[in-house]
């Protein structure tokens, strides 16, 4: 099994990508994997900055784990658990194409607290434009879908936050922080104002939106176009300097 591509964190990016995403969103996991694959294929790993933005797949879910992802999907679709498990198997096959693990029957609960902690990490690292918070988020998401980490266990959130530069006390406080919650809500509303009805929702250089888990080739074409536009703008500005 190949190792997932690391989140691009170029200090002087040609392309900035904001992605509205949720830890428990399987299509976010697939979409981000395809995006990373496209970035690497286009040789842009050192020219892209990826920034995770908060969005809740199911804000009505209880804070405590009361069901599995299969049970949630079955209830949402009005089908049996076996049918829902088969649907999850289809997504697992797509993950396998990307060299990623995909565990079925994952725990499922509300993700708001995780987003609050991500925003607290961002606030603690104001100079990196969300890179550390994004790395925290992706670590939890990859661990969740690979079946190696339960992001709804407080100890796991605190450990991950500590690994990304936020003290345990600060992370514990962030779990219920109104200040962090306000930032989460702002990002959710920003996505909706741009027309996002779900996630993943990608925005390139603050201008070009790409909703959904697009195929890798489509991401590659988008990256080429955005890179060409960015280089053209830079050249135009340089000619007037």
From TrEMBL:
CDD domains for the chain: DsbA_FrnE
A Pfam family: DSBA
Domain named DSBA-like thioredoxin: residues: 16-223
InterPro entries found in the cross-reference section: DSBA-like_thioredoxin_dom (IPR001853), Thioredoxin-like_sf (IPR036249)
Annotated GO MF terms: oxidoreductase activity
PANTHER family linked: GLUTATHIONE S-TRANSFERASE KAPPA, THIOREDOXIN SUPERFAMILY PROTEIN
UniProt-recorded name of the protein: DSBA-like thioredoxin domain-containing protein
Source organism (scientific name): Dietzia timorensis
